[in-house]
Amino acid sequence: MEKLKELVNIVTRNKVKAIEVIGFSNDNNTKINQLYEGIQSGQYNNDEEAFEALYGEDCDKNPYYKLKYNLKERLYNTLFFIDIKSSKYSDIKRANLYVQKMISLFNLLRAKDAKLNAIAIGEKVIQTAMEYEFALEVIHLARRLRSLYALVIGDRKKYLYYHSLIIKYQRIAEAEAMAEGYYYDIISLYIKNKSTKEESVKIASMYLDDLNQVKLEFETAHFFYCKTMIAISLYMGQNDYRKTLEICDQSLAKLKTFSFEKTGASLVINTQKIACCIQLKLYQEGRKVILEYIEKIPEGIFSWFKMHELYLTLCLHTKSYQEAYEVYEKATQHPKFSKFPKYAREVWKIFQAWIHFLSVAGKISKEKRSKFRVSKYVNEVPIFSKDKRGLNIPILISQIVLLLQQKRYDALIDSIEAIEKYKDRYLDKENNFRSNLFVRLLLEIPKRNFSFTQISRKTEKLVARLNEAPLEIANQSHDLEILPYEDTWEIILEELREK
Prior knowledge:
Blueprint: H1 2-14, H2 31-41, H3 47-55, H4 62-79, H5 91-111, H6 115-131, H7 135-153, H8 156-190, H9 197-212, H10 221-237, H11 241-255, H12 263-279, H13 283-293, H14 302-317, H15 321-332, H16 342-360, H17 374-379, H18 381-384, H19 392-405, H20 409-426, H21 433-447, H22 452-458, H23 460-468, H24 485-497
Helix pairs in contact: 2-4, 5-6, 6-7, 7-8, 8-9, 8-10, 9-10, 10-11, 11-12, 12-13, 12-14, 13-14, 14-15, 15-16, 16-19, 19-20, 20-21, 21-23
């Protein structure tokens, strides 16, 4: 009863107003609901469209700005009534939403001097925070419970308990912040530039050594995940896909030992595993992982597009060209695709080039005619190549095969000269052996006057060397060969034979 008395007194003193939230009004014709529905349905995409529809062109805009403010305030209020038990959330997401909501209530109760209710809520929610390893939330709650038990209740045993929790979780939070910072530092190197492996390998090795020195009472899932991703970036940077695959499998197994499921961490590690499976030609295993996860990921988020990127690559590597086209269409026709930053869409532009190449070669049956323009794609080289990104090789090769397919031999010779210079400058035989060989194959085409007979005869030894260095033993980046060189060359010879 004492707790209820506290709450009744707070509510009575503050004379609660009608709760203003979206969805609680019986009148759907109010301007505030019209604005909400217009934004939600996509009818209003900017202020100009909304203002004109709601007020007309010549009205004063101040009422509209006030309307926007009121809608924002109601949306803030509505957040507290969202169903956090929804099945669309993972267990850890539901737990995090619950903890954040209850911490807000705990803080409000403390501010209103409802100490008994604050303590009851705080002691309940801190157990969930500890169960799901929310270190910062544990520290926040423990500090305030320590204060209440030391200064108000006078319970020394409880005070000492929460004091010990603070010390313990501060160490955990510091370790997690360090691991997280190291991980983000490495990832930031790759966001807009894929050609920084040498630098990232050195950094990852140093960071991993630091993290292996950290001693904790228990290793949290988040600390373990960040450390795992740094190890993966280290071995991926060295093109050691067997070691990377081993780390992925070990890490996925260990994640299952935690008391809660880290779905996001499992997803990210599995995307790295799929990349390894493609490189090592473990296609069946890679496909199994893709089909297991692709339906679990909410559509339109970064991971959803990344999984489709890997799915498309796997289809191309297994000559499932029609399936590759269907995956491409599904991803690029998604409403959120156009909202992705340009660097994230670059690889899909290259995919489009290869899809077009395969379609013209008769390997893909398309329901509608492609809007792809080879000339425009060829002219985009300077955009892609400003920082010598790792994407340059598949771009240059795709441009050459497209020009060859169109029999635009003058433009092709210019591109061949460009890729020859690129080969001499960037494609060393040790780290890019297969790419070096394939470029040498392409260089033979104009030398042999585009003659199928001469080209096939003069390139036999180069093709044999390419076959002797299969993808799974090549010391090269996993995203270098979008369409395997052997398959590309086979299609090129088919086209030359029909010339």
